[in-house]
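Re: beginner question about structure tokens

> Can someone show what the tokenized structure looks like for a real chain? I only ever see the sequence side.

Sure, here's an example I had lying around. Input first:
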Amino acid sequence: MNKVFIGLVFLALIFFTCWFFLRSNATGESSPKDRPLSIGGHSTTFNNSIDTLLSNYFELADAFVNADSVKAKTAGEKLSASISNIPLDELKNDTLLKKDALVVYSTDSSSLVDIKTFSDTLTKDESLDKMRHDFASLNESLYPFLKGINYSGKKLYWYNCGMPFGENTSANWISATDEHQNPYLGKYHPFYKSSMVGCGELMDTIVAK
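And the corresponding structure tokens:
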């Protein structure tokens, strides 16, 4: 009798073990390999490379605010050099992007090429005005790049200047704070002087999700 009872208990344990295993697989509770990475879940190396890129970018923007072409060229060179240190291949393996990973990688790779191109060009420009034109073009690639990689750093501000190169012109830039300073008109504009340094309309924010 005892042997029969023990046998029944043993069979019951086997039954419930199999049932739990099959149920877990059906609900996906034991299959974490299909779960996407959280937004902003890049490696420390990746995040640090983006921080360096932005640090050089803000140094460049500050140089334009102060109408300092020498510092602008130095910052442009640093910005260009920092691009090669971004391990963009990480995006190919970002499960959050799923089937779009390669598309995002391709788009952001193209943006980085453009950022580097305009960074290199502005370091060779002879006038501050031409350098600011290249800076404007650079921003049109940097903004979508940061959006595409699911930027995970501090909140950034996307501003627009409605007359960077005279009437009926427009250009954008990124500010690290909402207390922005306009890099196109700056503190030493030949006509406005410093009166327009705070000019700019907030168009968007770049926030880690």
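Each token stands for a local structural state, so reading them left to right follows the chain. Confidence is low (pLDDT under 50) at residues 4-40.
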